[in-house]
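Lecture notes, part 5. Sequence design as translation. It can be helpful to think of inverse folding as translation between two languages: the language of shapes and the language of residues. The source text, in structure tokens, appears below.
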């Protein structure tokens, strides 16, 4: 397709959470970037425990970082001005322009929304001044009528910024036509004016059977279906919430191990799991089988157990104990079998946790598997460190209040930011504050060799597995999804021309389907 000069913005909303907004937004970003368009993603308000640190030390939703990669640009705070990180007590940490500013309950947060909308609109205007196109992603559903008066991410943003809206529905769940019609019917006349079309997502089957329904939807709503997107498996894209997790793809079956054995990894699925994308690179390795675990018996045959990050270290440590996982972990260590803790999981492995910030529980006994002490500080550490570990260069990112001090024993590697991976090792137990370390290919391969040796497995990591290349390939699949299955001419027009004129208002009441 020829390069087109353009300027505009579009909002991708969804009939429900997890309908596919993030995927469609990323796909449109990659499709436009391929045409040479300078495009940026934007999400005014995100609620997620899966976050990322930008180059200048700002925290944003990891989905927006993924979408920035799809757009082939560096992520920045303006792309996700408001990030909510739920805690364990019905409250959420509010991150504004990459920095934590408050801990609030739902009602407290509601009162802050008018000011937050102003900041979001400022960020959107800033991005639009620097990029040809901004593709915005909504949050949840635009038809949450009890929240509409203070909405800053869906129709509140669309009406304030004059954005055309496309709505994504997940047909795999069933009831997609009812969800689309109902979404529109619940909106006010002013909000309906911005809804310009539909995307049917996760379709599988014969498209000829769906065609009559698509035409009926157009007749009922006066809006076209702009794309029917097929179900794609194995994308492993950055989910916003641990509720979106499904079983990690079995790469051991997909590619087969290089050596004789498969390496089994059990990842403890904490209730307030955060930055679970840390294990994606393990699942990408041929011959590595990754599974989520919540019961002691699910750790029994694992060659490696991973304690990942969590938004609530003390509360999730209590959950771990309630589930009977502590004896299982200590039995593993006694047998010389490896355990790896990352960020919150690393904090749990120490002797003592002193937390007057996150849980306000004071001093709590850790698992005692590492000679470390954790003290939670009021200031959140946000950084993009670079160092060396196991003889390899390592890049990562830090997001934590808990500061770990090593009180004896062996260090994992040198404990100095900018020089080595910040962490600790004692026997088969490893821990680090850095997220993203397993995405470093050479380091990951060396670590997997160590794990295989500890477990007595004849496992050899593939020499040419590139996690960065695998991510790029997945983003290209999303670009293909839009290019091959969406009405791209209609998308161009929406982006260039804005909200279409003359879209009909759908009053509440029974559907008014034309007679055939």
């Amino acid at each position: 397709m020829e390069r087109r000069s353009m300027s505009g913005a579009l909002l991708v909303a969804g009939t429900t959470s997890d309908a596919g907004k993030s995927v469609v937004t990323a796909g449109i970003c990659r499709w436009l970037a391929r045409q040479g368009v300078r495009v940026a993603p934007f999400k005014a308000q995100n609620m997620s425990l899966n976050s990322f640190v930008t180059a200048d030390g700002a925290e944003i939703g990891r989905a927006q970082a993924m979408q920035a990669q799809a757009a082939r640009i560096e992520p920045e705070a303006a792309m996700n001005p408001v990030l909510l990180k739920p805690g364990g007590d019905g409250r959420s940490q509010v991150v504004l322009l990459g920095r934590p500013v408050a801990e609030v309950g739902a009602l407290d947060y509601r009162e802050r929304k008018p000011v937050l909308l102003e900041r979001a609109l400022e960020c959107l205007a800033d991005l639009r001044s620097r990029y040809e196109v901004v593709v915005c992603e909504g949050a949840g559903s635009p038809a949450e009528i009890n929240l509409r008066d203070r909405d800053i991410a869906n129709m509140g943003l669309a009406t304030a910024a004059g954005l055309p809206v496309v709505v994504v529905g997940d047909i795999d769940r069933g009831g997609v036509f009812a969800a689309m019609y109902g979404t529109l019917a619940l909106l006010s006349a002013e909000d309906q004016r911005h809804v310009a079309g539909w995307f049917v997502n996760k379709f599988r089957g014969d498209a000829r059977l769906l065609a009559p329904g698509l035409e009926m939807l157009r007749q009922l709503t006066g809006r076209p279906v702009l794309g029917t997107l097929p179900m794609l498996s194995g994308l492993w894209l950055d989910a916003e919430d641990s509720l979106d997790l499904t079983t990690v793809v079995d790469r051991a079956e997909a590619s087969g191990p290089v050596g004789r054995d498969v390496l089994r990894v059990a990842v403890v699925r904490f209730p307030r799991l955060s930055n679970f994308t840390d294990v994606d690179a393990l699942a990408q390795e041929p011959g590595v089988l990754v599974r989520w675990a919540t019961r002691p018996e699910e750790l029994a045959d694992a060659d490696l157990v991973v304690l990942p990050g969590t938004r609530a270290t003390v509360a999730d440590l209590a959950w771990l104990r309630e589930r009977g996982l502590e004896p299982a972990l200590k039995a593993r260590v006694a047998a010389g079998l490896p355990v790896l803790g990352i960020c919150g999981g690393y904090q749990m492995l120490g002797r003592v946790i002193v937390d007057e910030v996150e849980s306000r529980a004071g001093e709590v006994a850790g698992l005692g598997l590492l000679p470390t002490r954790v003290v939670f500080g009021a200031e959140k550490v946000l950084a993009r460190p670079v160092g060396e570990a196991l003889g390899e260069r390592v890049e990562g990112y830090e997001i934590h209040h808990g500061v770990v001090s090593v009180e004896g024993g062996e260090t994992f590697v040198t404990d100095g930011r900018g020089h080595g991976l910040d962490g600790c090792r004692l026997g088969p137990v490893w821990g680090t504050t850095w997220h993203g370390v397993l995405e470093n290919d050479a380091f990951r391969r060396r670590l997997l060799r160590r794990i295989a040796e500890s477990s007595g497995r004849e496992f050899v990591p593939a020499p040419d597995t590139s996690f960065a290349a695998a991510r790029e390939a997945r983003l290209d699949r999303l670009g293909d999804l839009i290019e091959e299955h969406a009405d791209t001419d209609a998308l161009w027009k929406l982006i260039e021309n804005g909200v279409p004129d003359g879209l009909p208002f759908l009053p509440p009441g029974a559907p008014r389907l034309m007679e055939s």
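The translated text above is only one of many valid answers, since several sequences can fold into similar shapes. Residues 106-130 form the longest helix (25 residues).
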